[in-house]
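Query structure, 150 tokens:
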């Protein structure tokens, strides 16, 4: 396998890795958005429940009902706290996936530059080889012309 072929294969592999990193980032971002939506749903439900509870302030409620409400709101607040933690961990995963994608893109760009430099070097070497052959043919013709005259 020539050097150019090896670099072409390396570039193709780097492209596949970059594409996989891009897809992984999309997947993690989707999971983060779902976690955020669930957090917003829990927070909205807690606010709605608290608003309904506030609307019944003028009524006399039994202590058991109030205890149940406070217990329920405590559990809901706990769930919101847990979901906030999930969103935070998803933020960390998104940041990590972004970093992996950035590294893959940098690697791909580096390999592409090397490949282009190798192609340019190869084209220059080919051009020099052709020029040398042309010069040698011209020299042979010139020599043949001098020999024929002499």
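Result returned for the query:
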């Amino acid at each position: 396998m020539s050097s150019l072929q090896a670099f072409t294969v390396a570039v193709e592999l780097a492209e596949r890795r970059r594409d996989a990193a891009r897809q992984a980032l999309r997947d993690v971002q989707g999971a983060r958005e779902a976690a955020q939506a669930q957090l917003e749903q829990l927070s909205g439900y807690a606010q709605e429940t608290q608003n309904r509870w506030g609307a019944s302030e003028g009524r006399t409620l039994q202590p058991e009902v109030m205890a149940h409400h406070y217990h329920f709101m405590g559990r809901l607040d706990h769930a919101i706290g847990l979901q906030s933690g999930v969103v935070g961990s998803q933020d960390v995963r998104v940041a990590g996936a972004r970093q992996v994608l950035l590294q893959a893109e940098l690697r791909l760009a580096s390999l592409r530059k090397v490949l282009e430099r190798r192609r340019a070097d190869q084209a220059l070497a080919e051009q020099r080889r052709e020029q040398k052959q042309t010069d040698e043919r011209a020299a042979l013709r010139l020599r043949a012309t001098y020999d024929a005259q002499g």
